[in-house]
Amino acid sequence: MKKSMKIMLFAIVLPFLGQAQQDDTKMNKFLDELMSKMTLQEKIGQLNLVTAGEAVTGSVVSTGVEKKIAEGKIGGIFSLSTPEKTRRAQEIAMKQSRLKIPIIFGMDVIHGYRTTFPIPLGLAASWDLNLIEQTARIAAKEATADGIQWAFSPMVDISRDARWGRISEGSGEDPYLGGLIAAAMVRGLQSNDLRAKDAMLACVKHFALYGAAESGRDYNTTDMSLHRMYNEYFPPYKAAIDAGVGSVMVSFNDINGVPASANKWLLTDVLRKDWGFGGLVVSDYTGINELVDHGLGDLKQVSQLSLNAGMDMDMVGEGFLTTLEQSLKEGKVTQERIDAACRAVLEAKYKLGLFDNPFKNTDSERAKTDIYIAEHLKKAREAATKSFVLLKNENQTLPLKKQGKVAVIGPLANTGSNMPGTWSVSADHANTPSLVEGMRESLGNNVEIITHIGSNLLEDAAYQERATMFGRTIPRDERDEKTIIAEAIEAAKDADVIVAALGEASEMSGESSSRVDIGIPAVQQRLLKELVATGKPVVLVLFAGRPMTIAEESETVPAILNVWFGGSETGKAVADVLFGDVNPSGKLPASFPKHVGQLPLYYAHKNTGRPLPKGQWFEKFRSNYLDVDNDPLYPFGYGLSYTKFDYAQPTASATSMKFGEKLNVEVQVSNNGNWDGEEVVQLYIRDLVGSITRPVKELKKFEKVLIKKGETKTIAFEITEEDLKFFNNNLEWIAEEGEFELFVGSNSRDTQSLKFTLEK
Ligand code: BGC
Fold it and tell me: Which residue numbers delimit the Fibronectin type III-like domain (predicted)?
């Protein structure tokens, strides 16, 4: 069609289309025109995502990167920030490159930006979707004010093995909770208008099954049945897609013999064809190059494989940049596929409004007014208090009185840089208040705080170095252990209560931080024993990037508050909860095992043919261990409050429902304690007979409610056929007739149940 005819047709048709279609038509016209001018090299250049490289004097990115921008060999840059630096890089693209295609700037904006919120596992423990969405919104406001438009978040990998360090970055073990959080994050980051100055393109990662790495070792193989994949691991990715996420990051791992980065079934058949994803697919950091080590061929071969599988953009490795031209000549890849990948990158930029305003995020004034401001810190404090999980509170040790002396002892007491937690690349680690500083600021003169390191983080200095990377420092005391402990006990001698600040350093979880021993390090355990032996009340404030094995501590220590890594305002938030200004309401998003040998451990397990009778912990020829029972130490959904919630028996509107009908379930929850409190009322369902084996319980609904002291609230849930569906062995999404058991309670273990049937 002639160009003039095309324009005429466009003018005639446009007024009759809906807004979304009009936008698409406009975008397509713009991109058709742009792409018609692009050379093959320029198209391949758009597929190249690089880091800023080493800054050389006078440059904001490495000279190599600057040259490539000018030559049109770069589509995006990540980990470059500030309006000034991103402006300079963008100016090169706009002034020196032939077609003036703007660069997209990305960053790992995972749980906040400069203002950091709790690690994602902690945010998940809030079970508060609005709050999580608000944290993502604030993160987007700050990051976009600092030059960035693309967040490599949300990370939604389901993990049921706490040895895996990256369990800290996701929402835990449950696909339903994980899916809701994934969608909330996407809404928060992208808002409802990607063109807005404070909206970011979200990137759901890591597609797929990264959290199921064998033996919890990072980057390890996954191999799993399709029905498990679809029922248990896919839902959060799918939820992000359904929420309109603009991009997907592909995982490093092997999936049933084909690494994700080369997996056409995953990236094209599932993602694009079945799920209808129309956005940008990006590799993880050198994920394409790593296919060489996976054993799929040389760089040229693996780059072909990856592009053909459906990968659009190559992070860091430059396999696409350096080999695709030749592969096209040899007929190993098609022009059509290169065009589609290039188009996906350009569409992302178009949707962000970068073609209209490439400098939309380079306003230095916004950087001053929108980053790390009081309003954001207030939300960070609230989010932190809501992420904490009270695991034990014997004899109401907590809350503490705002008076007297408190000894805050332990290697995590005086380290600000560890408070933001792992993957907080934009936090100001050096200036984040430590636990003690935050507590002091919050408590003022009411409480005297004395403090001591008590022990090293780890006995082994080399291990401690591996565990405190990227400026997350904890000083070492090289004196002999007994001397250090004795000094700590001496310091605490006049205290009314001891707060033991123990656990992991922030870099003991996160990427490439898997552990086989997920307990509190032995040297800290020895300190804790001595603290308990003083006879003073001891509160363990547990820093953890994962569910930890604390069976012994939960026997001996009267109160345990699990605080994960709470972000910028950790110290104040801990004070808020310890001293009763905030009643804790967090609930575990992942089971805490009794022993590492129980892993993988999750509440939604199968029954097996030889289940253990309830209440028993060993029986010969049953599915169990000789040395530890099957139960978690603290189950999924568990978390105490200062008040006491009592549940009545749940009731249902009927004992059966027909396909297409609904069942109304109600439960009364009473606050019979002395505090107002928030409770997460949880509803689980078991499909008692199925065409494939079904989990013993699956979370299907929950509601977080504030119940005032003395008050009773009725919580109502509606069960539909959709809630009873699962993927059968033919991967059909169906509900099957038969009997179901429905459980309601305050966690996945302590529930009351009723039965109903689904009938034709
Ligand atoms: C991680 C990703 C991250 C990327 C860019 C990789 O090592 O797996 O989660 O987005 O680096 O920083």
Answer: 679-748
Tokens 């994962």 identify what position? 546
Hey, which of 507, 511, 512, 513 would you mutate to test ligand 1's pocket, going by the most ligand atoms within 8 Å of its Cβ?
Answer: 511
CA distance 521 to 345: 46
What interhelical angle do 570-578 and 374-387 show, nearest 10? 50
Q: Structure tokens of 34?
A: 């742009």
Q: What pLDDT score does 433 carry?
A: 98
- Helices (H) and strands (E) in the chain — how many of each? 23, 27
Summarised one tens digit per residue, pLDDT across range 12-47 is: 665 667 888 888 999 999 999 999 999 999 999 999
Q: Strand 656-658 to strand 751-759: parallel, antiparallel, or no bridges (unpaired)? A: parallel
| End-to-end CA gap in the chain | 55
For residue 152 and ligand 1, the question of a CB distance below 6 A is answered with yes
Give the containing element (helix H, strand E) for 70.
helix 63-70
pLDDT reading at 622 higher than 80? yes
CA–CA separation, 567 and 377 (whole Å)? 10
Which residues are marked as active site?
A: 284
Residue 328 has pLDDT above 70, yes or no: yes
- DSSP codes joined into one string, 459-512: SSHHHHHHTS-TT-------S-HHHHHHHHHHHTTT-SEEEEEEE--GGGSSTT
In order, the DSSP letters of 179-223 are HHHHHHHHHHHHTT-TTSTT--B-EEEEETTGGG-GGG-TT--B-
pLDDT-based confidence at residue 11 (cuts at 50, 70, 90): low
Q: Counting beta carbons within 10 angstroms of the beta carbon of residue 89, is it exposed (0 to 12), middle (13 to 18) or buried (19 or more)?
A: buried
> Considering only CA atoms, which residue is closest to atom 2 of ligand 1?
284
Report all structural domains of the chain as residue ranges with CATH numbers, in order of start.
38-364 (3.20.20.300), 389-585 (3.40.50.1700), 645-759 (2.60.40.10)
- Write the pLDDT tens digit of every residue in 672-723: 999 999 999 999 999 999 999 999 999 999 999 999 999 999 999 999 999 9
Distance from C-alpha of 524 to C-alpha of 477, rounded to nearest angstrom: 13
Contact 55, 117 (CB under 8 A): no
Decide: 284 in ligand 1 pocket, CB within 6 A.
yes
